[in-house]
Amino acid sequence: MTLLKSSRDAFLTVASLVFLAAYALPILVVDLAPGFRVLCDATMIVTWVAFALDYGDRLVRAREKWAFVRANLFELVALLLPLLRPLRLVVVLAALSRSMAGSFRGRVGAYVVGGTGLLVFCAALAVLDAERANPDANITGFGDALWWGMTTVTTVGYGDRYPTTAEGRLIAFGLMLGGVALLGVVTASLASWFVERVAAAQEDGAKHATDEIHRLTAEVADLNRRLAEQTGAASAQKDAPAESAGASLVTSDVRSG
Length: 257
Known about the structure:
This protein is mostly helical and 257 residues long. The protein has helices at 2-28, 34-61, 65-71, 73-80, 85-100, 108-131, 142-153, 166-256. α1 (2-28) packs antiparallel against α2 (34-61), α1 (2-28) runs antiparallel to α5 (85-100) and α5 (85-100) packs antiparallel against α6 (108-131). The N and C termini lie far apart (103 Å).
């Protein structure tokens, strides 16, 4: 079962990266040949089917169906509305985050850097795709889109680049939420790490104190045993002369009689 899950996670990770490459290539290369555009579209469709099958399989296996749907609502919306191209990247982020979740606690730094970079990259692609055709747009290149993504995800909002279309603003709203969520996840993870460290230190201290108490108890018991032995030996030595004197007195009385 574990091997099957690992194989599925590896497959979904590769499929996510392939989907991301097929999505990004037509956006980054404006004069891409029509044949390559068709190939990219076919690749996205195939990987999209894989994502849909994975979601359906997880839904069937889930014990609480509605709880699973509520927990993966954005992924479901992205699957059901394929015409909303930016939402497709939600599935990519979800698939990659599931593969990273197992080592999240021990690799907070790598998770933050990788997750933030992937989120900014996907948002930059999506906003460039949405804004490029608008004559009033000021995000017309991938460099501008990346700069806008970095200032938005950090909630700085520099203001020199901003979306002008409704689709672009929707992407910006999602990126803002993603930035706040990432900050919250990092804060919670660090707080959890500190709590675990303090609890571990307290547990080690309690264990050391318990071991020390047991050692002292054993020493006291050993001292009591030795003291009892010495007291018994002293009493025996004290009683021995008295018994000898009593025996001599009895002998003398017998001889006198």
